Amino acid sequence: MIVRHFLDFPNPPSGIGPRPVRPASGLPRADFRLTVFPVLAAIAFTSPAALAAPGDPVDVAGIRAVVESACRIDPTDVDAVRAALPGSRLLDARIDQAGGRPGRSYHRVLVPGGGEWVLTKLFPGGRLRRVTVEWRRPSPSGARPELSANADAGCRITEGRRIVYKDGRAETLLILSADLTSVADEQPLNPPVPPAAAARGKPTLPRVAVVDTGVNYTLAPFQGRLARDAAGDLIGYDFWDMDTRPFDVDTARSPFFPLHHGTAVASVLLREAPDVALVPYRYPRPDMARFGDLVSHAADHGVVIVNMAMGSDSRSDWQAFETAAKSRPDMLFIVSAGNDGRDLDREPVFPAALGLANVLSVTSSDEWGRLAPGSNWGAASVDVMTPGENIPVIDHRGAAGKASGSSFAVPRVTALAARLAAKHLDWKGPEIKRAVVKRARATDGGRRVRYGWIPDPTDDFEK
Predict the structure, then answer these.
(1) Average pLDDT, integer, range 411-428
(2) Please, which residues have CB within 8 angstroms of residue 92's CB and are 6 or more apart in sequence?
(3) Are residues 149 and 64 in contact, defined by beta-carbon separation less than 8 angstroms?
């Protein structure tokens, strides 16, 4: 199951992710590959064992030795890998093609005691570009990622990353310098929700849900904009980790290089719909059957409009969502068509192509009503398009930037829907959807979607 949020989806098998936020975060892409090493037999059991607590020392020599060995071995020679690991077990081995030739390798190795080494090597055209080594410590729930090191084409370590755990949960990601000891930066992975700040605007604001990778609720622009209950607690939930901290982090691709998407999406919504209260959800990637509970949670807290810039190629991923959405016809789910450059009527993406009356699917256009490069379309499956290119956003760090793709067209239409709902308090999903699609007009590009193009979703003029 591969569910993608339409910015830089976890493990994207196709181009369905949006064009990335600019300026880019600078994090390497997870396209390395791993190899195994002749001297691993000597060092595999010397695990970097000092990672149980933040103050423990790190076995730098051990992981450096693994990196050096990974650089030397031929990653395509599985027999050599096995020979290098007496007493260990090769759990996974993959060689990916690049331009018709081997270009990336991945090996996951179980060592006595239950720990694992994960080795990735990138070598397009036979030229080594990057090596990544990860150590996963044994734990009651299985091997737990704790330390990684990246090396360049010369096998020089350029940086490391270490995950700090608290009560079994990943709490902090430490960015290490090339010496694998000095901490260059710290990134929170599961911070507590700040206390309620004074709400802006009206005392009671319409609640709009954003289902995504979560949001960085610690940022100043989100203070006073989050929906709270009578006790001041955040309304929203993390259906990935099953806790009350829906923080913006997606570790599906790599626990050491997490993706972030929901904060940027939510920032567009809050800018263009200033009088809404945000209800953030972290989507249930580990178990998509939880989507039914997510929809119920939103409905029970008065949410009518739901922003969902995500999708996958498999309809079965969305079975629980489809059932829940059908049972709540008064809700409106505004979803992304994606960015594969394909016709969803022929090659569907879900939930955009579910064909539900209370789903409004959105794709990205340019400023002149033409389908944006790479955006999906479908005369039956995609409802509207609106400008979603070079949209100002605030990313998960709180930095201003611009982003493009259907992910950023969706919150613009959601904001339009939210403003209409605030103006017409008796409207539910069907009335809101009718008013939104009424704004669309036909263009040359509009023939590729059902209703047409909404040139300016910030225009509140009603026909």
Answers:
(1) 97
(2) 106, 107, 108
(3) yes
